[in-house]
Design goal:
Length: 456
């Protein structure tokens, strides 16, 4: 066996947890065809394995221990110029976010059955503030210190769940029922009031300034019972926690500030499944050249897919979504294509084109074509400020309000089939929209129902 030490320090073959590294020279190009050959499934009492393929051709296979060890592997692989991580068709437990900070040319490849499973949120709905304190004191008094995990990042949520969060922070220490906090951000309150909930800030993948990356054939299982997600009297849906993949670049959204375009790009998520998540499935902030293809989303507390904050040139194709608050949100982005997707039982909206920044370079040239959306409140929504978008040849069925709701200007709504909407087929509140050749039917027409309603 040839000695290699460029990836992990070792003397010839080093024994790790009773298993040997297997080192084989193969070409990196050959590794792209890993789906074509399946390794023998290991006995369940043995840990799942991770195979690391460097661009140099070196191959190392090691047992998976935990997320922290996987983080070390990713960091080292990134320093060596990138490569491929292969995962067996086994369950890999995640207890913290895998951070991809300035990571490039690292690819994650699963096989049918490869599952990343998040830890159980035993503290959900139980861990609360028991005595009011000032956030500036950097101390929180909690009711169940036994559920606190020092070193973990949390979000603080108001008892009535108003707003997204009160702040994010790390718990440094716990002494009795007093938790010392550090690195607090996104602070929107001076006090931590009695009854406020502590929610772990945990996602599968969190990226910052990363690119040239792919995820293929991996199941991201949030491991949460979505029938029991009440906090107080309301169902909780997360924004930036308990998500699948969240990749970000810095962005500017303040009035008068120049829009900052993406500095990283080329991310592909293919043939993956996202399920049982309180938050979003895949989210991109200020990213370019994004592909989400052939993925399945099921039981999502928030958006299944979100393209956001100045992102551009994204393609979403052949995806299926079942039971989400929103199917897709396209917010303050440009040149996004959504085609051939099926969205079922999206509570609020199937495809939501939203406008926050109000910059003339945003919310343009969206193409939503050839999709099927059924059972929900509204099929497709276009916010004010979203212009020059094409909504064509979609099938929208069984909406409790309307099929298409448009407040933007100069959009094309053409060739859509809209059936069984409770109140109206299309609501047009914008100017200069072209609405032609749409088939709009209702099996139970009434005096209140109309095909196209124009509200100036």
């Amino acid at each position: 066996m040839k000695k290699m030490s460029s990836f992990i320090n070792m003397k010839s073959a080093t024994r790790i947890t009773g298993l040997f590294f297997v080192l084989v020279l193969v070409s990196f190009q050959d590794s792209q065809h890993v789906a074509a050959h399946d390794a023998t499934v290991r006995p369940p009492h043995l840990p799942p394995m991770v195979t690391i393929r460097l661009l140099s051709g070196q191959v190392t296979t090691i047992p998976y221990e935990n997320t922290k060890k996987l983080q070390d592997i990713v960091n080292k692989l990134n320093r060596l110029g990138g490569g491929l991580l292969e995962f067996e068709p086994r369950v890999y437990e995640f207890d913290r976010v895998l951070r991809l900070w300035d990571v490039h040319n690292v690819h994650f490849q699963g096989k049918p059955g490869t599952t990343f499973r998040m830890r159980k949120l035993d503290e959900f709905g139980i861990l609360k503030i028991s005595q009011e304190t000032l956030i500036a004191s950097k101390r929180l008094i909690v009711n169940r210190p036994d559920l606190v995990r020092p070193g973990t990042r949390y979000q603080l949520l108001r008892p009535n769940l108003k707003g997204i969060r009160m702040m994010e922070f790390d718990i440094a220490t716990i002494d009795g029922n007093v938790a010392t906090i550090a690195n607090a951000t996104n602070i929107s309150s001076k006090e931590a009031m009695v009854g406020a909930f502590l929610m772990p800030h945990i996602n599968f993948i969190g990226g910052w300034r990363c690119g040239d990356m792919s995820f293929d054939r991996i199941i991201f299982d949030g491991n949460f019972d979505m029938n029991n997600r009440k906090l107080g009297e309301k169902n909780y849906w997360a924004h930036t926690t308990h998500c699948g993949i969240l990749l970000r670049n810095g962005y500017t959204s303040r009035p008068g500030r120049p829009v900052k375009r993406p500095s990283s790009s080329n991310v592909r998520i293919t043939n993956c499944t996202f399920k049982n998540l309180l938050g979003r499935g895949t989210t991109f902030y200020n990213m370019a050249n994004v592909t989400v293809r052939g993925c399945h989303f099921e039981d999502m507390g928030a958006e299944a897919i979100e393209i956001d904050h100045l992102s551009s040139f994204a393609v979403i194709s052949g995806c299926t979504i079942r039971r989400a608050k929103f199917g897709m949100r396209l917010n303050d982005c440009t040149d996004v294509t959504v085609t051939g997707c099926v969205m079922q039982d999206c509570e609020e909206v199937g495809v939501f084109i939203t406008d926050v920044v109000r910059d003339p370079s945003c919310n343009r040239r969206m193409s939503v074509t050839g999709n099927t959306i059924y059972r929900g409140r509204r099929g497709i929504v276009i916010d004010p400020g979203a212009e020059e978008n094409i909504i064509a040849n979609n099938t929208i069925t069984d909406m409790t309000w309307c099929g298409i709701y448009c407040e933007g200007n100069r959009n094309v709504i053409q060739g859509n089939s809209i059936r069984k909407t409770k109140q109206v087929g299309v609501i047009d509140k914008g100017q200069g929209n072209l609405i032609v050749n749409n088939l709009i039917l209702n099996s139970k027409p009434s005096k209140k129902w109309s095909r196209i309603k124009k509200n100036d």
